[in-house]
Amino acid sequence: MRHALALAEKVMFTTTPNPRVGCVIVKDERVIGEGATQPPGGPHAEVVALRDAESRGESVAGATVYVTLEPCNHFGRTPPCVNALLAAMPARVVVAMGDPNPLVNGHGLARLRAAGITVDTGVCLDEALALNVGFVARMHRGSPWVWMKLASSLDGRSALHNGKSQWITGEAARADGHVWRARSCAVLTGIGTVLADDPQMNVRHVATPRQPRKIVVDAQLLLPETARLLDDTPTWIFTARTDAAKAARLADRNVQVIELPDGRGKVDLPAMFRWLGENDINEVHVEAGEKLNGSLLREDCIDELLSYLAPVLLGDAAGVARLPVLESLDDVRRFAFTDVMAVGQDVRLRARVDENWLALREAVSLLG
Amino acid sequence: MRHALALAEKVMFTTTPNPRVGCVIVKDERVIGEGATQPPGGPHAEVVALRDAESRGESVAGATVYVTLEPCNHFGRTPPCVNALLAAMPARVVVAMGDPNPLVNGHGLARLRAAGITVDTGVCLDEALALNVGFVARMHRGSPWVWMKLASSLDGRSALHNGKSQWITGEAARADGHVWRARSCAVLTGIGTVLADDPQMNVRHVATPRQPRKIVVDAQLLLPETARLLDDTPTWIFTARTDAAKAARLADRNVQVIELPDGRGKVDLPAMFRWLGENDINEVHVEAGEKLNGSLLREDCIDELLSYLAPVLLGDAAGVARLPVLESLDDVRRFAFTDVMAVGQDVRLRARVDENWLALREAVSLLG
């Protein structure tokens, strides 16, 4: 299963909106076939692995198939993988986690068992979920998994008072941040950051065959039509204001303007994430300023923090998230650290909302 | 040598102002004696190990002696360890680092070599220095090694605006913090923290046979005579103000008031650390508020940060260190991360001023 997970890791940047899946077929203690999900429209991992075995002249009959996600059981752009497996008749199928798609969940495995194939589940469940947490979130709760990237000093300062911020964390941290951009379906920022920094919002420090979509939260539709982010990558602007002329001009540049007012002059952020879920967005990478960060946290839109800290103290300077003054720590949203590591001269801390993770974990925990 | 380091670790809380030293004697691939430095006035590690070998009926002649610090060569409260080694005549002595004491540095090893004993140096140098960084700092530069403990949210907030701070980090982090208090020679805070929190400033969450000294920076000598920290543990109050009557009353409670004005109404902080070095203080654990922290950082008195971060974001709240507004990141004192780990639900980051560490490392790097 670890090998299957590693195969899925390799297609991290390319399968969206489909899940990243790896499959390894083992017979007589030899790998006779392996594969990972191809870009949308292409074959799924199981079919790639079955074809690989075939091309090697190996028979899958009696073999064990390891797959990181329950094989699909419905016709999408490709025929169901369960059918392909039933045709090959392995002795055993080992599945890391269930497919949260209600069309699939458990049904595929039931058909395999009915055909006499042994099915085992739950192997490396957490690793498999981490690989497709966004896909599972979209299927299960209808909205993407959202992480917020922060880069700051050890005392949480993101920029000097004069706005000089670009180099608080080092090159390795920036490159690592681009890995997270590259795996996401969309990179989201606020109009404040666009006006202040004119970011490109694309993946540059790592190689990727696919650029994520761009999203700007821009309540007043202030986006300058000269912004560097306007480079023909599909872009969504969420706004609370109607300006048909500007929207039409932006449409010519592959930009769609979506009006989602919250009735108080701002964008309805929870509605925005539901809209993104409906539009096939699995994972959102937020890289914004302290104002939008604060709003997203207050509205409970963030599942995970991806925090890079530089070994400096800055004292009086801009923070990472503007939040209301609290009277008690009981009112604080608590995250749970999951991963702590050095990245170049900086450190990276990941922390998630455990209840959000556990709800998804439960959704894909197949009762063996 | 690792075993010798582990023996020295076990006396972490008890040898001050002497260094923590471990010694292991090996012959024919068997440990025939081992020991660590006893509390001040008691025997040093080498003598404990030699006596251990003797009590086991083993002869050290021809053996290899591993010791984490160069054996002493001068009469202090105990006779020189070099003499004891020359009497036992091992074939080889392996030393992790030199003794920065100018009375010793290299001379002890020269005497061993002159007697025909093979001497190897520099094994596990960094680990050995970490164990006695304060002793080396005091010997080499005349002032203690100073670390600053910080406990904050992921965005560097140490307390809510209403002062509610006590539980930002969890129990495990607090207990770990007490391990650092316990190894220090002195715990230092500011009068602001005393007035706000009335801390006890002692070691409670770990067992220790020795309480560190207490130090309060109190420019105006405002210390309430009812403060909980006044519990007969030797305490130093550094002040810029003369008040002989209050000083006399405090003297009855094991408190010494030291006047070190900087001429601007504050305590001369660099002079304070030199004074501490002259008074046998190897390691200082700073646990103070953002005002004193800021002053200590501005005056370049801090060698290391010991930062505990809780997985929460607090936004608008008190910081960990009040620092002047910077115009450029080039003006920032850079630390270097050395150690990142989870501690209960929190994480602990250690970062040091690399040039300070390297200066000490050079001082104890014996040229073999």
From TrEMBL, chains A, B:
<feature type="binding site">
    <location>
        <position position="81"/>
    </location>
    <ligand>
        <name>Zn(2+)</name>
    </ligand>
</feature>
<keyword id="KW-0862">Zinc</keyword>
<dbReference type="InterPro" id="IPR024072">
    <property type="entry name" value="DHFR-like_dom_sf"/>
</dbReference>
<dbReference type="InterPro" id="IPR050765">
    <property type="entry name" value="Riboflavin_Biosynth_HTPR"/>
</dbReference>
<feature type="binding site">
    <location>
        <position position="167"/>
    </location>
    <ligand>
        <name>substrate</name>
    </ligand>
</feature>
<comment type="function">
    <text>Converts 2,5-diamino-6-(ribosylamino)-4(3h)-pyrimidinone 5'-phosphate into 5-amino-6-(ribosylamino)-2,4(1h,3h)-pyrimidinedione 5'-phosphate.</text>
</comment>
<dbReference type="Pfam" id="PF01872">
    <property type="entry name" value="RibD_C"/>
</dbReference>
<dbReference type="InterPro" id="IPR002125">
    <property type="entry name" value="CMP_dCMP_dom"/>
</dbReference>
<feature type="binding site">
    <location>
        <position position="165"/>
    </location>
    <ligand>
        <name>substrate</name>
    </ligand>
</feature>
<feature type="active site" description="Proton donor">
    <location>
        <position position="46"/>
    </location>
</feature>
<feature type="binding site">
    <location>
        <position position="72"/>
    </location>
    <ligand>
        <name>Zn(2+)</name>
    </ligand>
</feature>
<comment type="similarity">
    <text>In the N-terminal section; belongs to the cytidine and deoxycytidylate deaminase family.</text>
</comment>
<keyword id="KW-0686">Riboflavin biosynthesis</keyword>
<feature type="binding site">
    <location>
        <position position="181"/>
    </location>
    <ligand>
        <name>substrate</name>
    </ligand>
</feature>
<comment type="pathway">
    <text>Cofactor biosynthesis; riboflavin biosynthesis; 5-amino-6-(D-ribitylamino)uracil from GTP: step 3/4.</text>
</comment>
<dbReference type="GO" id="GO:0008270">
    <property type="term" value="F:zinc ion binding"/>
</dbReference>
<dbReference type="GO" id="GO:0008703">
    <property type="term" value="F:5-amino-6-(5-phosphoribosylamino)uracil reductase activity"/>
</dbReference>
<dbReference type="InterPro" id="IPR016192">
    <property type="entry name" value="APOBEC/CMP_deaminase_Zn-bd"/>
</dbReference>
<keyword id="KW-0378">Hydrolase</keyword>
<feature type="binding site">
    <location>
        <position position="197"/>
    </location>
    <ligand>
        <name>NADP(+)</name>
    </ligand>
</feature>
<keyword id="KW-0521">NADP</keyword>
<keyword id="KW-0511">Multifunctional enzyme</keyword>
<comment type="similarity">
    <text>In the C-terminal section; belongs to the HTP reductase family.</text>
</comment>
<feature type="domain" description="CMP/dCMP-type deaminase">
    <location>
        <begin position="1"/>
        <end position="120"/>
    </location>
</feature>
<feature type="binding site">
    <location>
        <begin position="289"/>
        <end position="295"/>
    </location>
    <ligand>
        <name>NADP(+)</name>
    </ligand>
</feature>
<dbReference type="InterPro" id="IPR016193">
    <property type="entry name" value="Cytidine_deaminase-like"/>
</dbReference>
<feature type="binding site">
    <location>
        <position position="44"/>
    </location>
    <ligand>
        <name>Zn(2+)</name>
    </ligand>
</feature>
<feature type="binding site">
    <location>
        <position position="193"/>
    </location>
    <ligand>
        <name>NADP(+)</name>
    </ligand>
</feature>
<feature type="binding site">
    <location>
        <position position="287"/>
    </location>
    <ligand>
        <name>substrate</name>
    </ligand>
</feature>
<dbReference type="GO" id="GO:0009231">
    <property type="term" value="P:riboflavin biosynthetic process"/>
</dbReference>
<dbReference type="GO" id="GO:0008835">
    <property type="term" value="F:diaminohydroxyphosphoribosylaminopyrimidine deaminase activity"/>
</dbReference>
<keyword id="KW-0560">Oxidoreductase</keyword>
<dbReference type="GO" id="GO:0050661">
    <property type="term" value="F:NADP binding"/>
</dbReference>
<feature type="binding site">
    <location>
        <position position="204"/>
    </location>
    <ligand>
        <name>substrate</name>
    </ligand>
</feature>
<dbReference type="InterPro" id="IPR011549">
    <property type="entry name" value="RibD_C"/>
</dbReference>
<dbReference type="InterPro" id="IPR002734">
    <property type="entry name" value="RibDG_C"/>
</dbReference>
<comment type="pathway">
    <text>Cofactor biosynthesis; riboflavin biosynthesis; 5-amino-6-(D-ribitylamino)uracil from GTP: step 2/4.</text>
</comment>
<dbReference type="Pfam" id="PF00383">
    <property type="entry name" value="dCMP_cyt_deam_1"/>
</dbReference>
<protein>
    <recommendedName>
        <fullName>Riboflavin biosynthesis protein RibD</fullName>
        <ecNumber>3.5.4.26</ecNumber>
        <ecNumber>1.1.1.193</ecNumber>
    </recommendedName>
</protein>
<dbReference type="InterPro" id="IPR004794">
    <property type="entry name" value="Eubact_RibD"/>
</dbReference>
<feature type="binding site">
    <location>
        <position position="151"/>
    </location>
    <ligand>
        <name>NADP(+)</name>
    </ligand>
</feature>
<keyword id="KW-0479">Metal-binding</keyword>
